[in-house]
């Protein structure tokens, strides 16, 4: 099984890019963030025609998450996690990995900038709520996968010029501590199990020539519970997608079980 996560930055204008990616990489399940459309505006028929089921939690103009899957998923949930601002940033479903009943969760964590504003307070509240939610969930099910755009830079090596980001909401120490608290519930940052090199990014801003200069951030992650670690074959960032015409500013991250 191959599962990918991608902040698509508006799904309706990038359907062909997604289609080509699904076919090329033989993706079984794709988690999407920032779909920027209401649920009934999601291009479900387009993906149905490619052989994918669609599960969507949309929102007008911005945010929104979705899961598209080659197989029918069970127990679709968009309501059990309470978003402090009632935004569409969470969807989960049940899948099976090597006969293990597994919960897969797609999230789009708030950006939080500028620091010192209501947006930053929202991010902190969201993270704390999510930690409590997962802490309860992992007691019931030890097989969990959390994928998505976390808007968290975990370490210095995950950003170009970390000193420039010290007071950014993506890199503030208290935010990174919340990320580590989540890991300490029994998760691994799966990408780092396979690649520990510096400058491995998932996001490059559209401005300032960030892509060409490789001035990026690693903010898209797959956190995998300990029970599933031995089932992972590889984890890879598909950077080439960022170089396509009219791309998202994020590249997909792909996990192969």
CATH fold-type name: Deoxyribonuclease I, Chain A
Query: So what's the overall shape?
Result: globular
Radius of gyration: 17 Å
Question: Helix tally?
Answer: 4
CATH class: Alpha Beta
Separation, N- and C-terminal Cα atoms = 5 Å
**Given the helix and strand composition, which structural class is it?**
alpha+beta
Output the strand order for the largest sheet: 3-4-2-1-12-11
Q: What CATH architecture do you see?
A: 4-Layer Sandwich
Q: Any low-confidence stretches, pLDDT <50, length ≥5?
A: none
User: What proportion of the residues form beta strands (DSSP E)?
Assistant: 25-35%
What is the ordering of alpha helices and beta strands? EHEHEEEEEHEHEEEE
**How much helicity do the residues have?**
10-25%
How many domains, in number, for the residues?
A: 1
Protein model, in words:
It is globular, with a radius of gyration of 17 Å. The chain has helices at residues 15-25, 44-48, 118-140, 173-183; strands at 2-7, 29-33, 53-57, 65-69, 74-77, 90-97, 100-108, 144-149, 187-189, 220-225, 234-237, 253-256. By secondary structure, the protein is α+β, with helices and mostly antiparallel strands. The chain is 19% helix and 25% strand. The N and C termini lie close together (5 Å). The mean pLDDT is 97. The strands form two sheets. Strands 3-4-2-1-12-11 form a six-stranded mixed β-sheet. It has a six-stranded mixed β-sheet with strand order 5-6-7-8-10-9, with no helix packed on it. It has a single domain, classed as Endonuclease/exonuclease/phosphatase (Deoxyribonuclease I, Chain A, 4-Layer Sandwich), CATH 3.60.10.10.
